[in-house]
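ingest -> validate -> predict -> emit
validate: passed (alphabet ok, no gaps, 137 aa)
predict: started
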Amino acid sequence: MLNNFLIVLVSVFSFLSSGKTEISSQAKKESKNVIVYFSGSDWCTICHQFSGRVIKDEKVSEVIKSNYVYYVADFPQKKKLAKEVASTNEFFADKLNEEGTFPKFVICDEEFNFIANIPSDATAESALTILKKYIKE
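emit:
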């Protein structure tokens, strides 16, 4: 009985931590930095404005797609996230967004160490400048 409990416990832990492990592995494999975008998809008006002005800009989205591993850490108020997604989001919040700022757009390395932040009032052009500066060669 105890052995079964330990197997289940280990399986649950592995499952809950797999999101961040996959992101880190992909970043290492592709030799890319990681972007974590903190958003409140169903309540944060500023997040929608930032996304429309910056993230959805054609040039910005192409630089992100080609040069970074991109993760959206969404913190909705009305919908419930799957446990593994919520766990990954909480990990990133604890590591990169302790103050709970929304929106927050963070560039970090494959071990999730902070490198830079793109401010919420950024333009697409200013975001591109920052993004291009931290592309791994």
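The beta strands are 33-39, 68-74, 104-108, 114-118.
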